[in-house]
Structures are given as structure tokens and as C-alpha cells.
Task: structure prediction
Amino acid sequence: MVYFYKVTKAARTREFIIMKSAPLFNKKGYAGTSMNDIMQATGLAKGGVYGNFKNKDEIAAAAFEYSYNLLKEDLAKQVLPQKTAAEKLFTILRYYRNYTIAPTIEGGCPLQNTAIDADDAYPFLKKKAKEAFQEMLTVLQKIIEKGIREKHFRRNLDARREAELFYAQIEGGIMMAKVSDDVTILNRLLDNLKQRVETEYICN
Result:
């Protein structure tokens, strides 16, 4: 027997608050986002917000998870259909091209924004950002290991080290391009990574 569960009004309201709050936290950070900002974005009174969340911490944590999941899902849609490890890596590089002027998530990369914003001041956010970074690194590592296992990539590659280098250049490129208002910095770094995969990863 198949059961259908009706989404409650409270659940819909909670999801609405998260959806409207996520861009605020991603653009303005935790300290820069006030409860008044959230109330204005949602059109709810204070009681409507606090009736669904205990405090701003809980909203911020849910908002980060929402933004991060959007990023993961969008990236996965493009990467998963690719057959080879090289195609998967090239797809990731294309995904981040021009990212600072045309981000998937309003406000830019939620991992980088949250990691910088949280630092040691908000340990609950730092913990979530750390877990997200580890997940992204693990995905990259598994792609590189796939290439090695299928003998498309050189077997002497250190998959974890390369995953760290790969992701550090992407995130570093996003930060440099954003601060400099120059997306070509990011794109050059992405081109360098593509060249590295072609010359250092792929077996001749």
C-alpha cells in the first residue's frame, strides 16, 4: 500500500522562511542579517518566524544547508551523466566559469561565504561549512580515484592531494575574482586546472 502524506502548513511556512532567508545569509553573513531582515523578506511577523524556529542560529544553519544542497544538486545534474573521470572534472570547471558574475546561488558560493563569515565566532556554522568542504573534497577524490582505477589517469597520482589542490584553486579563484571584481582571474585558474588534468592526469 502506498501512503501519501500531506505537507503541513507549519512545514510549508518553515521551508518558506528558509528559502527567503538563505540569500540574506549568503550575501550579508550571519552578523549582517537581522531578524528584521528575515521578517521583511518573508513578510511574517516576529511571532510567525519564532513560531517555526527557536532563534537566528537555527535559521542560519537551515539556510546554509538549503543553499549548499542547491549547489550540490545543480552540480550533480551536470557531473553525474558524464562517463569518464576527465569529463566529470572538466564539467566541474565549466560549472564554475564566470561564477562570480553569474553564481548559481544568489550571493555566491555558500561554502566560502559561510566559512569566512563563521571563522571561530560561530562554531555551529563553522562545523557545517567544514563538513561541506570535506564532502566536496571527497567527491573530487573519488572522481580522481575512478580515473586511476579505470587507467585513464596516471596511477602515481595522490588522489586526495590533487582533490585539495583542485578545490583550493577553484575557491581561491572565486575569492580573488570577487575581491578584484575581475572574473578573468577565476577563469584563468580554471584554465590552468584544465591544462593540469590534460597534461598531468591523463595517460598518454
